[in-house]
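Predicting holo structure, magnesium ion bound.
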Amino acid sequence: MTAAEMTWPDLLNRPLKMLIDGQWVSSQSDAHMEVINPSNGQVLVQQSLGGAHEVDLAVQAARRAFETGPWSRMRPSERTRLLLQLADALEHNGDELALLETLNTGKPLKIARAFDVGMAAECLRYNAGWATKLNGETRNVSLPGDWHAYTLREPVGVVGLIVPWNVPLAMAVSKMSPALAAGCTVVLKPAELTPLTALRLGELIQALGFPPGVVNIVTGLGHEAGQAIVAHPGVDKISFTGSTAVGKSLLTQAAGNLKRVSLELGGKSPVFIFADADVERAMDAAARGIFGNTGQVCAAGSRLFVHRSVADRVIEGIAQRARALRVAPGLSPDCEIGPVISARQRERVMGYIDSGRAEGAEVVAGGEAVQGEGFFVQPTVLLNTRADMKVVREEIFGPVLSTQLFDDDSLAQLAARGNDTDYGLSASIWTRDLRVAHQMVRRLRSGNVRVNAAAALDFAMPFGGYKQSGWGRENGREGVEAYTELKSVAIDLN
Ligand code: NAP
Ligand code: MG
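Done. C-alpha cells:
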C-alpha cells in the first residue's frame, strides 16, 4: 500500500467515543482532547476524556460480563475461536490499522503493517491456544485417610489494562489476549496520545460478537481515567506498561483492595560487543536496537559497552548508520525513522542530549532536533560517556545511544558495569566465545538476555524485568497464568 492508495480511515471522520458495555459512548462531562499526528503536529480527531464515572460504568459492565455473562463460563474452545477470529480480523484490516498507527505515532507505515499489526495478530494466535490448555493438577497428598486433592486455575476476574503510546495496538493486544484467554474481562485505557488503534480494535471486537462488557475501552488521562481504574474496588488486577515513576505510584492506590499488579516498566539496557564478535552484525543490531521505533522501546539497547580493540570501528559504524537513516514522516515512503511522539517528548530527549554535552560527552552523530513541522530528533550517538552521567543512568526513550569502552575488565567487572543501573529489562552480548557468553548471561541481572541476536520477541518467551524494570512476566505460560488465581481443593473420600 502506498500513500496514494490509502483511504482515509472512517474512524477519523467524527469524534471518537469509548466502548462501555457494548455501546459507544461519550464522556458524561463532555470533556475531550485532540489527537495529534506527530509527523506534522496537526489534529487528527477529537477524543472523549473518560473519568471516574465512565470507569465505574466500564468496571460494572466487566463485572457483570464476568460474573453472570457468558465469558468466563464459555467453553474454552469457544474463547479460542473468537480470539483466532480477532487475529484474522486484524490482518484483514491490517492496512487500515497500520495507517491509523502511523498517523498517530509517526512510525514508518511498512513497520506498522509488518511489525505492529503482524505482532498483534501473532500474539492473539499464541494466546488463543492457552484457553484450552490452562489446567490445575492433581496433588499426591500424604494426609491421613483417602483424599482427592487437586488445583484449579481460575480467571482472576476484572482486569484493568493500562498501556503506553510507543506500540499502542500491539501493547493493548498483548495484554488483552492472555487476559481473555484466561477467561477474564477487561477495561483497557490507551495512552492519551494514542487512542486510535485501540478504538478500531474495539470496533472489530464488537463486529465479531464478543459479549458486551467483556472488553471495555475508556480513553482519558492517566491521572483521571487511569487512576480511577487503579483505585476501583471492582478491579481484581492491574497490568500496566509505562514509566517506572507511574508504575511505582500505582501501588498505593492498588493496595486499597490488594489488587494483583503486573508492571512492565522502563529499561536502560546494556549491549556488550567483545573483540571477537561478528562486528558487522553487532553494529547493525545495535543501531536497530536503539534507533528502531525512534528509540521509544522499553528494551532499547541504550548503553553500549565495546571492547577497546574494536571500539573505533564499531562506534564509527553505528554513527554512520545513524547519519544515513532517513528521518521522515511515517507516511513518506522512504521513512526509516519517524518523529518522537510529542513536542514534549522531543524537548525531553533534547534535554538529555544537552545534559550529556554539559557533562562531557561528545556527540559523534546527530544531536539536534530537526526543524519544521513534526517532532523529529536526529539519531544520536554519544562518545565518552561515564556511568555517573544522566544520559547513562536515566531512560531517555529516544534515539540516543551512550557508549563506553572496556579492555582488561574481568567478566565480573564488566557485568557489574552492565548491572550498575536501577533497571534490569534486557541485555545483549556479542561474542563467539561460549564461555564468555554463558558467564555473562548468568551474571547479568536482567529479565531478557540475547546472544549474537538482534531483537528476538517471541510470544512463547516470558518478557519482563528484574529490579525496577517491573513485576512479573508477560508472554508464555507465565503470561497467561498471571491472569489466574490458583485454588487448592481437597476432598476427603472416607
Ligand atoms: P506513563 O505516564 O507511565 O504512561 C503509561 C500509561 O499510564 C498511559 O496510559 C498513562 O496515561 C497512564 N498513566 C499515567 N499516569 C497514571 C496514573 N497516575 N494512574 C494510572 N495510569 C496512569 O508514561 P508516559 O508519560 O507516556 O511516558 C513517560 C516516560 O515513560 C517515557 O519517556 C519513557 O521513559 C517511559 N515509558 C516507558 C514505556 C515502556 O514500555 N516501558 C512506555 C512508555 C513510556 P496518559 O497517556 O494519559 O499519561
Ligand atoms: Mg504520562
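The pocket of NAP (ligand 1) is lined by residues 162-166, 189, 191-193, 221-223, 226-227, 230, 241-243, 246, 249-250, 264-266, 298, 395, 397 (CB under 6 Å).
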